Amino acid sequence: MKLLITGGAGFIGSNFVQYMLKNYPEYEVVNLDALTYAGNLENLKKLENSQNYTFVKGDITDRATVDALFQKENFDAVVNFAAESHVDRSINEPDVFVSTNIMGTQVLLDVAKKYNTQKYVQVSTDEVYGSLDTDGSFTENSPIAPNSPYSASKASADLLVRSYYKTYNFPVNITRCSNNYGAYQFPEKLIPLMINNVREGREIPIYGDGQNVRDWIYVEDHSRALDRVLHDGKPGEIYNIGSNNEHSNLDMAKMLLNLMDAPESLITFVPDRKGHDFRYAIDASKISTELGWEPGYSFETGLQETVDWYRNNQDWLNHVVSGDYREYYSAYYSK
Ligand code: NAD
Ligand code: TYD
């Protein structure tokens, strides 16, 4: 199989690129990534000498680049990770979310359809369903009700993907996964931000009262689920992905500080995020029943491995948090 992975230099995309090359050594993988602040070729260093892996720097909104790549490579399948992915940034700068997440998806769909690609997988998020109260969980039939510019742009992209199936019978799947954590995650997201702040002796900023709930999944479990959807997903179907790991942000912060032997007094409550979704929870029974996927990691094991990885990869973290990140951090958290 010749596979195009877009956004493969980011957190989840780079995990999936490595997962695919390890588990399917006969596949050819091309990674198209614009290398925004979140894209980092250090995430893929181990593949530098790999014969069946190619990196192409390019933007999914650039139709000429995307078209030329499809013409040259004749891909069998596309998995689209490329996106602006951080809710807080979307609140301050929504434009680029519309451009990459919506327009970029439309370019990819259009070009993939033009070249008769046999499978298109859109990596989406449970955030398109909006927010839950204390009970229940999202199923694939839950209404779309996004609340942030990020989730609205991902929901818009999902609707375009759906329309290419309904209108053109183009073979798509949409996956909607809960909050990921693991190695190589950019430290603007809560878990690596906390790990880095402990390392730097900084406070841990918790929005509002810390009672908001997220449903955590280890990134490798997400990659395994995407493998199942890529190979066996039924055309036009949506699959939720999640591993039943709900924790309030406050409880999760305490758990992490405990693991890191750091004092809970580092926790500092800061003003709440605008439009902060209260709770996400995924019902993943469809992918389990239909495609036989089950998560492999408990939260305790995954979190311990994540902490160990960041401890053992301080160079990666040092490079990532130099320059732009420091400016972002002081601009965002000094408000
Ligand atoms: P990330 O921000 O770490 O990586 C995004 C990647 O996309 C980067 O490598 C970046 O350079 C690239 N990119 C951005 N704009 C691009 C463009 N215009 N053209 C080409 N490449 C571009 O994101 P992530 O956390 O790895 O998320 C990957 C995907 O998974 C996203 O689509 C996101 O919506 C989805 N998702 C993420 C989570 C999560 O918890 N992180 C959960 C569910 C779904
Ligand atoms: P985040 O990692 O940004 O993921 P998402 O917003 O996509 O769920 O945030 C996870 C949760 O942690 C969310 O409820 C917001 C909260 N949060 C904080 O309390 N403090 C922070 O500094 C950050 C970045 C997030």
Structure, explained:
With 335 residues, the protein is an alpha/beta fold. It has a single domain (2-272, 279-333), classed as Rossmann fold (3-Layer(aba) Sandwich). Helices cover 43% and strands 17% of the residues. It contains 12 helices and 12 strands. It has helices at 11-23, 63-73, 87-92, 95-114, 149-168, 190-199, 219-232, 249-259, 285-291, 299-312, 314-320, 324-333; strands spanning 2-6, 28-33, 53-57, 77-80, 119-125, 172-177, 179-181, 204-207, 213-218, 238-241, 246-248, 267-270. The chain has a 7-stranded parallel beta sheet, with helices on both faces. It has a 3-stranded mixed beta sheet with strand order 7-9-11. The protein has a two-stranded parallel sheet with strand order 8-12. The chain is globular and about 55 Å long. It starts with a strand and ends with a helix. The structure holds nicotinamide-adenine-dinucleotide and thymidine-5'-diphosphate (TYD). Nicotinamide-adenine-dinucleotide (NAD) binds next to helix 1, helix 4, strand 5 and strand 7.
Main traits of this protein?
single chain, 335 residues, alpha/beta, Rossmann fold, seven-stranded parallel sheet, three-stranded mixed sheet, 12 helices, 12 strands, globular, binds nicotinamide-adenine-dinucleotide, binds thymidine-5'-diphosphate
